Amino acid sequence: MVSTGQSSSLREALAESAHSATGQQGTAAGGKTGAAATSKPAAGREKGKPADAKFVEFIDVEKTYGNFHAVRRLNLSIGRGEFLTFLGPSGSGKTTTLNMLAGFERPSQGVITLDGKSVDRLPPYDRNIGMVFQNYALFPHMSVADNVAFPLSVRKVSKADIGPRVTRALEMVRLERFKDRKPTQLSGGQQQRVALARALVYQPSLVLMDEPLGALDKKLREHMQIELKQIHEMLGVTIVYVTHDQSEALTMSDRVAIFENGAIVQIGTPDGLYNEPATAFVASFIGENNALDGIVERVDGDQCLVTLPTGLRTTAMAIGDIRPGAPVQLAVRPERIAGGGDHSDNRFLATVDGRIYHGDHQRLLARLPSGQVLTVKISPDATMATGEAIDLGWRTADCRAFPAGVAPDGITANTGSVS
Questions:
Q1: Do residues 130 and 199 make contact, with C-beta atoms less than 8 angstroms apart?
Q2: Residue 316 and residue 397: Cα distance in Å, rounded?
Q3: Where residue 406 falls among pLDDT bands split at 50, 70, 90?
Q4: Contact (CB, 8 A) for 205 and 129
Q5: Contact between residue 345 and residue 351 where contact means Cβ atoms under 8 Å apart
Q6: Which helix (DSSP H) or strand (DSSP E) does residue 28 occupy?
């Protein structure tokens, strides 16, 4: 976690950097400078409401390698100042999509635009995009300051301007004291911050991050998640982030796009994806989930009655094409299951299989008469013994029924827009 002192110091550094950047931009445009020019983030975005909902657009974009479709008919809009995360398992198409936006790959079909201009044929260095890689890609023979200055040097920025801009960038990531060190003399977290400063020093319109925290340990990774979120909120820069770590995506993002088999199967806010997954895959990939197989007995509006193995029945929300007699997969979160009381629409008798201690809570393993073992989130003080009989229950609204065995088509589902 970031201490109060660290957080305050970081905010002050960021505010100074944002003030300077905005002031320079305002002067160049003949606009206001000073306090009036810094009343909004540098990107000019009102918090939670992108000023330009189509700052980045993918229009019917596909990427194929021979007969293999890495990305299928992608239509996606990214708002100016938004933090959008591409989340999915390995091979789902998220990194290929990022590489096409960066210019490292060319689309096999379709158009990519940045700020209204097509960039799918522009080389990476002409796109004004910052990039942070998992391996940081720092020059080992250069000092920290020289690494950060490199993008300014190749853009022919005057030497008189390079020094102050490098200093501000290093202050932003709290590494000004290490400017003369080589990357090999820094920790992994410090190297990551150098890479971030280098990506931001020339004030790009867009920053792309390809699993930049993947090489860090858990504690440092969580620390850097908070710092990245603070930097984004202060500067208002547009960030597109790639990860397979769901907690990382939920922690930092304005929106998350879930990739599967080259397609976006759902896109939305972190809480929207968690509480209202559109497919069984999303329900299982975002957060912990209990999955139960069953057969639909009847459908009543947006709800359905499902028969589980051995004849147990439960009511659930019907998601997608749910019909009587069809197989479905049910999803219910561990924290939505509680002791069966009058408030529960569905009540079952179960047997305790064991408990797993997690500090602030426990995971109770409860076996239903069908043999299905459910995971239930309970108080850390609970003392149920193995073999003890307990009542379990959940509300209909907390249980979602999805058509079984439905795969994304890669066309109609592969669409994202600002919500």
A1: yes
A2: 7
A3: low
A4: yes
A5: no
A6: helix 4-28
* Distance between start and end Cα atoms, the chain: 31
The CATH number for 291-403, chosen from 2.20.28.160, 3.30.300.30, 3.40.640.10, 2.40.50.140, is: 2.40.50.140
How far is residue 126's CA from residue 138's CA, in Å, rounded to a whole number?
21
Identify any residues that bridge with 366 across adjacent strands, giving them in sequence order: 352, 374
Residue 69 to residue 90: CA distance in whole angstroms: 14
Q: Tokens 């440092």 appear where?
A: 220
Answer yes or no: pTM beyond 0.70.
yes
* Residue 343 pLDDT: 62
Residue 345 has what DSSP assignment? Answer: S
351 forms beta bridges with: 367, 389
Contact 361, 305 (CB under 8 A): no
Q: How far apart are CA 378 and CA 337, in angstroms?
A: 9
Domain range 4-20+51-276, CATH class: alpha beta
Span(s) in the chain for CATH 2.40.50.140: 291-403
